[in-house]
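Bumping with the actual sequence this time:
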Amino acid sequence: MSSMFRCFALLAALVLAPVAANAQDGTPAQADRLMEVMRARETVDAILPQIQMSQQQMLAQLTAGQEIEDAERARLTEVLQTSNARIVEALSWERLAPIYRDIYLKTFTAEDMDAMIGFYSSEAGQKLLDRLPQLMQHTMEAVQTLVMPMLQQMEQDIRETTAAE
């Protein structure tokens, strides 16, 4: 399940990448160029297989240790394939690009976008993009170390509450 959280976090990070001014005078062409230099499409394309893998892992966890008949396994596989197809359709670049463009235009001024295009076109900007997945992975691991004890405590509290009832 943490893999799915990572995938959504990466997608959110891409959408919300440097948030700045609240002006609307940028152009669609600037937003498109910014998405291009930020490798937005490639990032989305890389996230989709991770989401699909997370779904497979979730299914494996839900069915672990259970004897499942072939017919039931086939139905579960079909449900997973249908879900994957819906995700691919919903998160296709053709659907996301206009959404991203609109968000960028609502968030950044023309000057902001020109500055970001300059940065992300630079060697330093490209290096940041190269290392962003690793940065996100390390961030998620660090956050998990903070959240995991709380989730374990919550699980224990739920068990104690349901056992007391």
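The tokens above came from a reply further down the thread. Residues 2 and 54 are 8 Å apart (CA to CA).
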